[in-house]
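Supplementary Note 3. Input sequence used for the single-chain structure prediction.
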Amino acid sequence: MSGWVWAVIVAVVIIVLLLIAYAAWKKRQSSTLQTKFGPEYDRAVTESDNRRQAEKELLERQKRHEALNITELDPATRERHMQSWQQTQARFVDAPAEAVRDADRLVGQVMTDRGYPMDNFDQRSADISVDHPEIVDNYRAAHGISLASDHGQATTEDLRQAMVHYRSLFESLLGAGSGDGRVSTVSSSGGGSSGDPSPVGAVEQAEGSAYPPSSSSSGERLN
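The predicted structure, written as discrete structure tokens, is reproduced below.
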């Protein structure tokens, strides 16, 4: 065969190998995004025109997040927010709508203190999804209930569920990488401590009977 024929064959082989390598790279990228974002990956695919567009959007979230200066809370700030949450949750018994509104503001304040930009809600939830993909849908649900409550369209059970959702994100934001920054449990009276240093233990032990009750059972606690 002439030289130009061999040149064409070599070029075709190179192109095929490049295509195979690209396909393998895209598959690894998809797998990495699925592992990192979990249910948020599925949500992005469902809401996008196609998987490629969804993955592009998730990659853009990661790129934006890398440029942010997300920091851990210092112990004093963590304790202050913990006490604020205890007061907010205790308020639910007598004023559930106001408590949910306060919870929304408190979560936003913790995000601000951690370094998350407080742009529009969609951008905030996108930023949060990079670090907390497993609970960002809880944040969206809670925010939706809070907005509905502002228009008198949320039941007591809706509000109770919103508090559950807000608490899951609040605990994650407060407890992420806590390490030496953990604070002891603060009692509902503002003093004392227990052996559980985690935000979960602090909230649960501090509030006791002040947990928002379920509409089906006045003795049910947030879970």
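The chain is about 70% helix and 0% strand. Residues 3-66 form one domain.
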